[in-house]
Amino acid sequence: MTTSPRPEVLRAPLIVEFPFTRSLGPVQSAFLTGLRHCVPLGVRTSAGQVLVPPVEYDPDTAEELRDLVEVAPTGTVTTWAWNHAPRRGQPLDTPFAWVLVRLDGADTALLHALDVPGPDAVRTGLRVRIRWAAEREGAITDIACFEPADDTEPAAGEAAPHDGQFADMVTGIVAPARLDYTYGPGGAQSRYINALADRRTVGERCPSCHKVYVPPRGACPTCGVATTDQVEVGPAGTVTTYCIVNVKAKNLDIELPYVYAHIALDGADLALHGRIAGIPYDEVRMGLRVEPVWTEGGRYPDHYRPTGEPDADYDTYKELI
Ligand SMILES: [Zn+2]
User: Fold this and answer.
1) 108 CA to middle of ligand 1, Å?
2) Which whole number is the average pLDDT over 285-310?
3) CA distance 281 to 273
4) What pTM, to 2 d.p., does this model score?
């Protein structure tokens, strides 16, 4: 018995990021605007508890909460965890403690970063104070971090009522969302991607129902068995269905309108999608025969163009729509 060397399974960094815009409502608006003015605000429940950070509804009774109060910029660490390797976008770029801090006057704790030289300098019960950011814009990052305070006792006094009004209310924020990870496509897609580097399209056949999947996922979703046989398909194919795109996508320099289509490559039992060009957009039709067009250095076809063959008969692709 001979064994062939295991094909290389690809891995690559993959970053998905987008801005998430949200409106704040009266309570969060007051809280974030307060931070811009170095005024930490909480909200009082009907039971007399002060919640910091404030919420709009009582977590116990679901009652609407609007009674804002000002609390102190000093507080006590209620629990903590050491972050030895800060990541991009975190409050500090040197190792720090994640802490829950109960600000003086509050009954709940706020999650933030504590700037200390090492884990030996943190303990539950440590007195801390807010270090304000030099430039504040109405965001949680207006608290740059917490730092150890000199005092040993919580500040005396009750949280003071506050109307939550400032001259320059923050009414919305843009929160950038970012997923930053290493993607491993698995064996089947690695073979597919490696073949694309040679401008060949390789699908995989199900040993049970004999369907050829392109791109292959490694298993047949109908039969639940691994696909094993590699099958080269295309390069030409048939438009099974399509849409006309009239909305410009960010970072995509394609003249509007254009056509995006499902294309069943010859020999494939699943349609993939691609852009159709080389034909007026209003002449694209189901059954149109197309072939891939590669650009120099491209890792996949830039678009598909008509081959000039007669249209495919509907019966040949009706199962692939
Ligand atoms: Zn199958």
Assistant:
1) 55
2) 94
3) 16
4) 0.63
